[in-house]
């Protein structure tokens, strides 16, 4: 039986750790996606150095947030919503954890995640958008 194609999305740390721990349930992007289903979360090689994200990292996620350049977990991607204005963007701020001044007037998109699962780190090259992933060992099997 052929294994289904799996996809991942790179997210800069500390946001990737916050996603797989369930603290951040919406990822903001400048582009929409029609993709749905289980996706791997890849901790990007380069972190986000803005202090706003790092302030959100609890001590329990300190080690996880230091991992870069690999798969650290997975989520179910259930929806993609458009934030056409600042008010809509701010209505979901508790879920995406982005600052108001990060909103862009052309609009942004929120990828809604559920069912986060942490995964033992597996080094893997990332990409700017969704990318195909081969042979990721899953925890517990």
Q: Would you summarize the structure shown here?
A:
14% of the residues lie in helices and 35% in strands. It is of the alpha+beta class and 141 residues long. The chain has a 6-stranded mixed beta sheet.
Provide the low-confidence segments as ranges. none
Strand order across the biggest sheet?
2-5-4-3-1-6
- Evaluate the radius of gyration: 15 Å
* N-to-C series of helices and strands: EHEEHEHHEE
Portion of residues in helices?
Answer: 10-25%
Terminal residue distance: 18 Å
Look up the CATH topology.
Archaeosine Trna-guanine Transglycosylase, Chain: A, domain 4
Structural class: alpha+beta
**Largest beta sheet, briefly?**
6 strands, mixed
CATH class: Mainly Beta
Number of helices: 4
Strand content: 35-45%
How many beta-strand segments?
6
| Coarse morphology | globular
Number of domains: 1
Key traits:
single chain; Archaeosine Trna-guanine Transglycosylase, Chain: A, domain 4; about 15% helix; about 35% strand; globular
């Amino acid at each position: 039986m052929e294994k289904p194609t799996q996809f991942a999305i790179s997210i800069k740390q500390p946001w990737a750790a916050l996603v797989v721990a369930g603290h951040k349930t919406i990822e903001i992007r400048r582009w929409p996606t029609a993709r749905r289903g289980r996706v791997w979360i890849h901790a990007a090689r380069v972190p986000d150095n803005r202090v706003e994200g790092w302030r959100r990292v609890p001590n329990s996620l300190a080690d996880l947030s230091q991992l870069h350049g690999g798969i650290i977990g997975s989520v179910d991607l259930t929806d993609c919503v458009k934030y056409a204005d600042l008010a809509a963007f701010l209505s979901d701020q508790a879920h995406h954890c982005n600052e108001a001044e990060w909103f862009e007037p052309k609009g942004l998109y929120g990828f809604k995640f559920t069912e986060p699962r942490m995964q033992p780190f597996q080094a893997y090259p990332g990409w700017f958008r969704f990318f195909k992933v081969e042979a990721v060992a899953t925890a517990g099997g």
